[in-house]
Structures are given as C-alpha cells and as structure tokens.
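Researcher: Structure prediction, please.
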Amino acid sequence: MSQFALSCSGVSKSYSDGDRRVLVLDRLDFDLAQGEMVAIVGASGSGKSTLLNLLGGLDRPDEGRIELRGREWQSMSYAAQCRYRNQQLGFVYQFHHLLQDFSALENVALPARISGLSVAQASALAKEQLERLGLSERAHHRPSQLSGGERQRVAIARALVMGPSVVLMDEPTGNLDSDSAQLVMRAITQQRSSATAFVLVTHDAQIAAQADRQCLLQQGGLVERAC
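Model: Predicted structure follows.
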C-alpha cells in the first residue's frame, strides 16, 4: 500500500480545439499525504477542475499514473472504479448538488445507501455527520429551507459519510459570502483527521491559506508555494 493517500506521476491531458490540441496538464506530479490538506490555486482555465476530475477517476489522463491508496484508476474496471470511488472518495463542489426532494438527512445518507447499507444503518451514519457539523436540527429540512452555508455543510457531511481517504473540493466556498465561507472552512478543518486528506481548489487566498500546502497550477504543472 502506498504511503500517500493520493499520488500522480507524469500526468498529461489535452483536448481538441478545432484543428489543434490544447495541452492542459503536462507530465504533472503530485502527492497527497494521509490527513493533509492541499490547496490548488491558479488562473481561470489553468486546468484545476480537469485535474480534480482526473484525481477522482472521472476522466482518464493521456499519459501517466494516478493512484488512490496505492490502486491505479486505470487498472480497474468501470464497475470497480465506481465501488472504489464510493468507498474512498468524497466530492464537494461550488454548487452543492443536493437532491431537492430529499431532506438533509436523506441527502447525506445517499452514498451509504448506494454502498449497500440498510436505511437504518445509512441514517445512523448521516445523523452522526450532521451532528458533527452542527446541523442536527436541520436534518429533516429540504435544501430550499436551508441557507447557502448550511447547504454546503450538508454537502460536506455527504462527502464524509463513508469515511473516505480523500475529499476533493472544487471551489466549495465560491458561491458564499465571506462569513458563510469561513463557517464552511471551519467545518471542514474540524472534520480533518489522520484518516482523511483534502484537495481544495480555490481562487480565494484567505481560504487557500488555511491549507497545509499551496500549489500553483500553471503551464500544465504544479509549483508549491509558501503558505
């Protein structure tokens, strides 16, 4: 088993733009230690979301290797990737992507239900996560009845409910005011443990400063910079 929660080596990715190929990532290397939070910053269009999709096994690199807890995404079948993603990864996006007809509890419980747990087992895990994030009293509210910050905390609870090795976050505070953003970041940092690592893509310098490391994505590669 790899000493890293997540690791990629020599990763390249390009896309077609009419008659030409646009190189987005160029032989990129990246390691994420267990329990570590790394912020990835960079200009719009630099490839941050592309990198997250590759790290999460939602897309394939043209070249290179990406491993989650020592298992390479490309070595697994599609079905195995889906199971492994459900067990080992959490995702948080700028827009919460909660199911509008489900309560907060039902939204958080969904990954556990997909994994095969009973309604009672999944609900117990979801209640625990909502309690940790200060949302017990909002468990039976639907997303339309929650504030923006509360919806993002529900999304964080959903990402954490399976006890993942890695949580990938794409601008999780980008749609919030500064006060709500800090509440969400406080919730994230309170949930950190030696078992779960975080990759945070953000354009906000104050948010990035709360990570253990910052990496600038430019010209297809990552450059570590001082926090």
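Model: The longest strand covers residues 4-17.
Researcher: Thanks, that helps.
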